[in-house]
Amino acid sequence: MKHALITGITGQDGSYLAELLLDKGYEVYGLMRRKSVVDYGNVDHIKDKIHFIYADMTDQTSLIHAMTISQADEVYNLAAQSFVATSWEQPLATAEIDAIGVTNMLEAIRVVKPEAHFYQASTSEMFGLVQAIPQCETTPFYPRSPYGVAKLYGHWITKNYRESYNLFACSGILFNHESERRGKEFVTRKITNAVARIKQGVQDCVELGNLDSKRDWGHSKDYVHAMWLMLQQDTPDDYVIATNETRTVREFVDTAFACAGIEIEWSGEGVNETGTDKATGKVVVKVNPEFFRPAEVDILLGDPSKAEKTLGWKREIPFQELVSRMVKNDMELVAKEIAFSRL
């Protein structure tokens, strides 16, 4: 039986990965930061099947302790300060977790079990001001946020430990991937949650930032399978995981509202653009400049051909189904909130 250690196990990706590994017969260990109130997040439904270890990415001693307890054959480093907007507000904390934290984990592996296979969660945000379209493993990086910069350090230190110490260390350069378990602070879940609340009459409209930003969106469940495949190879390498399709935030909004039976009509330009419910004439989408990034990433479009060829990976959940799942989930959650408020 293989042992796996997952950092960031309570998040979206961590929960889907934990389910995948449990189904494959792994003994799963998960890192948790100690809080005054225990929060199992997205793994609450499988918490009894997971061995939890209290540790912190900024505390190398605790990571060495976690490696010693778990004796992990595979380590998946998904822990991060992952909200891009917050990285401008907390740049040093982002660097400590997303950059130095990766080094701490690699050192813990090197000290305790250097034969372990390591996965680092890199990100398409490292491409930032893109130098080529689409982006692949050899496209130059140009990060446009403290988050992207910190993740780029994590990416390169992983490659450096692979080449310096012969560690089996891989980076997955994952493009935007969403799911029903995505946090509500992220724009996709903010949209689907708002759609559900507007549809059920408990919210008037949703305010968003740059509607013209283009992203390559897939489903988290497909992407964690790619993580696992990377660590099953004979040699470690880095891979872009994406759909090779890009859509604007505006298109995501249109699709989400359509899943709830609402057709959006757009009018105006720039900060004055609005989206109106065609059936009622009510404005349900507004642009708020407060949500603009200090440095924008205009377009991300990934080329996953290397992963498809080498790993045999392919996505199973298309864009329309991804959005539909998210809207359906939020419709159910909002309905429960309404029912509970009436008790």
Automatic annotation (TrEMBL):
<dbReference type="GO" id="GO:0008446">
    <property type="term" value="F:GDP-mannose 4,6-dehydratase activity"/>
</dbReference>
<dbReference type="InterPro" id="IPR036291">
    <property type="entry name" value="NAD(P)-bd_dom_sf"/>
</dbReference>
<comment type="function">
    <text>Catalyzes the conversion of GDP-D-mannose to GDP-4-dehydro-6-deoxy-D-mannose.</text>
</comment>
<keyword id="KW-0521">NADP</keyword>
<feature type="domain" description="NAD(P)-binding">
    <location>
        <begin position="5"/>
        <end position="326"/>
    </location>
</feature>
<keyword id="KW-0456">Lyase</keyword>
<dbReference type="InterPro" id="IPR006368">
    <property type="entry name" value="GDP_Man_deHydtase"/>
</dbReference>
<dbReference type="InterPro" id="IPR016040">
    <property type="entry name" value="NAD(P)-bd_dom"/>
</dbReference>
<dbReference type="GO" id="GO:0042351">
    <property type="term" value="P:'de novo' GDP-L-fucose biosynthetic process"/>
</dbReference>
<dbReference type="GO" id="GO:0070401">
    <property type="term" value="F:NADP+ binding"/>
</dbReference>
<dbReference type="Pfam" id="PF16363">
    <property type="entry name" value="GDP_Man_Dehyd"/>
</dbReference>
<protein>
    <recommendedName>
        <fullName>GDP-mannose 4,6-dehydratase</fullName>
        <ecNumber>4.2.1.47</ecNumber>
    </recommendedName>
</protein>
<comment type="similarity">
    <text>Belongs to the NAD(P)-dependent epimerase/dehydratase family. GDP-mannose 4,6-dehydratase subfamily.</text>
</comment>
